[in-house]
Amino acid sequence: MTPATFLPIIIIALVFASIGNSIGGIDEQIEEPPIIGYIDYDNSNLSKIATTILDLTSEVVYNSNDEQEGLDAVKEKDGIAFIIIQENFSENIYNGLPGEMEIYWIMKGAGILDSISSTVFGEIINEIDKNISRELIQNDLEVNATTVLAPTFRNETTYFKGVEIKGLPPEDISGILSQQSTLIPIVMMMIIILSGSMVISSMALEKENKTLETLLTLPVKRTYIVAGKIIASAVIGLILAVIYMLGMSYMMTGFYNMEDMSSTGFSLYLSASDFFLIGLSVFVALLAALSLCMVLGTLAKNYKSAQALTFPVTMLTLIPMFITMFKDFDTLPLALKGVLFGIPFSHPMMAPRALIFDDYMIVIAGIIYMFIFALIMIAISVWIFKTDRLLTGSTNVKLKKFFKKRF
Amino acid sequence: MATIEVKNLVKNYGEVEAVRGINFTVNKGEIFGLIGPNGAGKTTTLRVLSTLLTITSGSVKIMGFDLEKDPIEIRKIISYLPEDAGAYKNLTGKGYLEFIANFFDPKTVKRMVEKGIEIADLEERINDKVDTYSKGMKRRLLVGRALMIDPKLAILDEPTSGLDVNNAQEIRKIIKNTAKEGTTMLLSSHNMLEVEYLCDRIALIDDGIIVEEGKPQELMTKYKASNIEEVFTGVVK
């Protein structure tokens, strides 16, 4: 047992602790009163039950009669919902019909933690239903049982990333988006770890089986040796990625009926060109991962040490996987945004959500970034191949002297 | 033109000076032996000449090509056999020879493989996986690999290391015959009898410096020794 045995575990603990702190506490979000606005056109005793509950449980930033002004006020105050209680709210209920409440949701992100506020506010709306039901029962009003049990009807519209989605609350949108974006992080992790460990192990086995020296004295450029090893692993990774992409396409067309979404006014599904961009993003991420693994592979002394060297790559796939699961890129603190963008494997994980909302810029920027990252890693690998490091574990003495003199 | 020209070659590993300014020349078709105690700098010198390690200072020219400027050209004309070299275990002996031959001129692949098979002399076992070979068989295959390409310069680090008498003798014969065909040989060995039998000239290296150089017979006369082992112990006290 060496310090190196514990080091990975300590790093994992520290990384996840810092992610947790950066993202913020769930308790705080639950306890914090939701910021809302409302208009009560009905002004009846039943609508007053609703507005009283809203006043008591929420931070109301607008309570007047201008719908657009109200919606803007909620958006400006970073609120989560704007409610309009329609004029015939009470009348409908007394006539055995559900009273209509229009709810305009301001959705901030599609991660698990992003939807906490809207879930809390959903519970407040349920509380309104319960109190109206109680009022109807206590006053022994002649209303049919169905209306007593469900006295209100919600007409919901969600605003997310500048898009208006009719008929769906944030939870449903999060659900649909997570169905489409959960598989990519998992498959990315599998592909990268599998192909990455192949590259690292191939270098380790060259050293362990004493074939490296022969390979390096053959008349072939070091760049070709590096490229050969990366391409061989990339082909296997690409085959895995293609299988995954096909599986995903079939799952999408098989499980969900696209026509069901026509009433929302916006498609929450990926198009063929979106799939192409995701495929490209996955491929470039794979290239970046394998190039990084090549650099790590040069450090491997034998097969055993190669196993340990896959750890940083695994971590770099796990971190974005967890972050994107809990939070949207847009709702992350700036520091975490930087971390997420800096990790090349984050980009294919973020791509599906971004593409659904036509945010092509971040996807294309990610692809360019990953490509540059891969080129830098390949250049470092080739440089290491040209130094003594591969055989002796240290770089050129001239370089060391250079740094010694200057720093 | 000499095949190898080494001038004031220095190779340091950090603060450790492995080779401290050695000079030697090897002519075409010569078998030149580097002998010395463990850690003297033999393997480092051979690795530098094989383009595996960078030079700290000094210069090396092989067939007129500068080691620092033209490593790719040098790799086309040399063949290096490391002391503890291995072959890809999942390949057959023949498959391994074909794999290596494919790094050279595609027109010569078939001829190279045939020559490699002939040198290795593993009979039908050449079609078995390397993983099933004995140490001697593996070494023969690697010698076959090193010499099948008809290198201008073969650099052999302890070519008979760990082999039994019969296998070692076979490999010495192969080296001798290949040199007769015009390949220059630079080898290192701990086996003084081997050096005496094989080498046209030898250099005794100790603590990174060449302390003596010459033909085996001349050195034996100079040190009034009956064999190279006595020369070696006389010089490296």
Task: Characterize the structure shown.
The complex is a heterodimer of chains A (407) and B (237). Chain A has two domains: 26-173, abc type-2 transporter like domain (abc type-2 transporter like fold); 182-406, no CATH class. Helices cover 67% and strands 9% of the residues of chain A. Chain A contains 18 helices and six strands. The longest helix of chain A has 34 residues, at 222-255. The model of chain A has no long low-confidence stretch (mean pLDDT 82). In chain B, the strands form two sheets. In chain B, strands 6-7-8-3-9-10 form a six-stranded mixed β-sheet, sandwiched between helices. Chain B has a four-stranded antiparallel β-sheet with strand order 2-1-4-5, with helices on one face. In chain B, helix 3 crosses helix 4 (109-120) and helix 4 packs antiparallel against helix 5. The longest helix of chain B has 16 residues, at 165-180. Classes of the chains: A alpha/beta (407), B alpha/beta (237). The A-B interface holds A 209-211, 213-214, 216-221, 387-388, 391-392, 394, 396-398, 400 and B 12-14, 47, 50-54, 56, 72, 75-76, 78-80, 82, 84-89, 100, 103-104, 145.
Q: What's the story with the biggest beta sheet of chain A?
A: 6 strands, mixed
Per DSSP, the total helix count of chain A is: 18
Shape of chain B: globular
Assembly state of the chains shown:
heterodimer
Total number of distinct structural domains of chain B:
1
* Helix content class of chain B: 25-40%
Order of helices and strands of chain A: HHEHEHEHEHHEEHHHHHHHHHHH
Number of strands of chain A: 6
Question: What is the overall silhouette of chain A?
Answer: elongated
Q: Give unreliable regions of chain A as ranges.
A: none
The secondary structure category of chain B is: alpha/beta
DSSP strand content of chain A: 5-15%
Report the strand count of chain B. 10
The main sheet of chain A orders its strands as 2-1-3-4-5-6
